[in-house]
Amino acid sequence: MLVDRNPLPDDLAADLRRQLAFVIEVDQMKAVIRETVIPSVDRCENDAEHSWHLALMAIVLREHAREPVDLPRVLEMLIVHDLVEVYAGDTPLRLQDDQQEVREREAADRLFPLLPGDQGDRLRGAWEEFEAHETAEAQFARSLDRLQPMLMEWMHDGQRWRDNGASAEGIRSRLGIIADGSPALWDVAESLIAEADRRGWLSPDEPGNSVGF
Amino acid sequence: MLVDRNPLPDDLAADLRRQLAFVIEVDQMKAVIRETVIPSVDRCENDAEHSWHLALMAIVLREHAREPVDLPRVLEMLIVHDLVEVYAGDTPLRLQDDQQEVREREAADRLFPLLPGDQGDRLRGAWEEFEAHETAEAQFARSLDRLQPMLMEWMHDGQRWRDNGASAEGIRSRLGIIADGSPALWDVAESLIAEADRRGWLSPDEPGNSVGF
User: Fold this and answer.
1) Between A5, A27, A40, which is nearest B27 by CB?
2) How far away is chain B from the Cα of A97, in angstroms, using its nearest Cα?
3) CA–centroid distance for B145 within its chain
4) Residue B87 near chain A (CB below 8 Å)
5) Chain B partners of A40 at a C-beta cutoff of 8 Å?
6) Domain residue spans in chain A?
7) ipTM of this predicted complex?
8) In whole angstroms, what is the distance from residue B148 CA to residue B171 CA?
9) Which residue of chain A has the CA closest to B8?
10) Residue B77 backbone dihedrals phi, psi, to 5 degrees
11) According to the model, what pLDDT value does residue A88 have?
C-alpha cells in the first residue's frame, strides 16, 4: 500500500488507522489517466478529476433524471465508481471487454477489504449498484458518466472522434445508455452528434465503426 | 466563458444550455493548482482532485464527526466549496487574508449567476454555509479540508513544513479548527504533529512561525 512508504503513527486507533490508510491508498485515482482531454488545460483527465466533475454534474443536472432520484446515493456512487481503477486501470469505452470486468472484480476484492468492519462491503455495494445499472440512481449516474466525455470531446472539436473514426451510429449504439437515466440528456447527446456530423467530424456509418472513445 | 470557444448547439433548451455551459466552465477547477504535493505521483494537486478526495473522505470518515451530520449536505458543500477559485485562484493557508475573501466574493458574484433560476443561489448557499463554519456539517467539511493536506504532507516527510519553517504551535493554531468538526480527527492531527516534531521536521515554536502550508 502507498501508506507503507511512511506508516501512520502507531498510537492511532486501529480502525481509524485503516480508514486513513484507505484514504491515502485511493490518492492513486489522481494517477489513473483517462483518454479524455480536458478543455481548460490541454492534457488528459485523471479519475479523481473525472469523479468530481460527475458529482458536480449530478448536483446541477439532477432535475433531468428520468424519474426523481435519491441524490445522495447518486453522489456516493459517482464518488466511488472508479475506485477499482487504482488497481485495474482505466479502459476506454471502445476497448471494454469481459477481461476488464474480471480485472475490476479482482481489484474490488483487494481494495474494499482494506476498510474496517462492514464499511468496505457498503462501499462495494455502491460500486456494484453502479455497475448493475438497474436502479434509477445508477442509471442517472451512468448517464452523467457517458455525457461528460462527450462535453469534453465537443470542446475539442471532436478530435478523438476524428482520430478514432467514430460514426454517428457507433456513438449512438454505445452511448444510447444515457437515455436510460435521462431522456433529456440523451437529447443533448443526439444534438451534439448531429452537429458533429454536420461539421464533418464523424466517419460514415459502417459496421464496426467505433464510439470514438 | 470556456464554452464560448465552441458554443453548444442552439437547439438545446435555454436553461439546460446554461447548466451545461456551467458544467464546462468549472472544468477550470482542474487547472487551479494547490501547493499540496500528492503522494501517488510527485506533482501538485488541483482543486478538482482535492474536492473529490474530500468527498471520499467524508464518506469513509463520517462516523468521526463531532455529532451526527447530514452526509449529503457535507458532500454538496465539499463538491462546491472551491468553485469560486476558478476565478479567484487558490490561496495557501499561510497567505490567506481579507483580500482573498473579497476576491472570492467577487468570483461568487460572477460564477453562480451563470446557472438558471434560483439554482445559482442554492449552490452559493452551500458555499456560504461552508465558509461560515457554523453548522455541524460545515465544521466537519472544514475538518476534512484541513486534515487532507496534512495526510499528503505526512506522506512527503513534511517537506513543505520543513521548507516553510512550520512549528508545532504554528500548525496547531491554524489547524485547531479541525477539532470543531471532529475531535477524533484532531487527535489524528495532534499525533501527526507530535511525530513530525520527534523526527525533526518542525521548527522551534517562536511567534510568527507558520502553519507550513
Assistant:
1) A40
2) 28
3) 5
4) no
5) 2, 27-31
6) 10-198
7) 0.95
8) 14
9) A192
10) -60, -45
11) 94
Work out the burial of residue B135: count CB atoms within 10 Å of its CB; fewer than 13 is exposed, 13-18 middle, 19 or more buried.
Answer: middle
pTM of the predicted model over 0.80 = yes
Q: Look up cell 462495494; give the residue.
A: A124
Closest chain B C-alpha to A74 CA, distance in angstroms: 10
Query: What pLDDT sits at residue B94?
Result: 76
**pLDDT by residue (tens digit) across B103-127?**
999 999 999 999 998 999 999 999 9
Average pLDDT over residues B13-25: 98
CB contact under 8 A, A28 and B22: no
Compute the distance between CA of residue B144 and CA of residue B150 in angstroms, rounded to an integer. 10
Domain A10-198 sits in CATH 2.40.280.10: no
Contact A75 B80 (CB under 8 A): no
Across the range B49-74, mean pLDDT stands at 98
**A195 neighbourhood in chain B, CB within 8 Å:** 9
Does the pLDDT at position B210 exceed 70?
Answer: no
For residues B195 and A9, the answer to whether their CB atoms sit within 8 Å is: yes
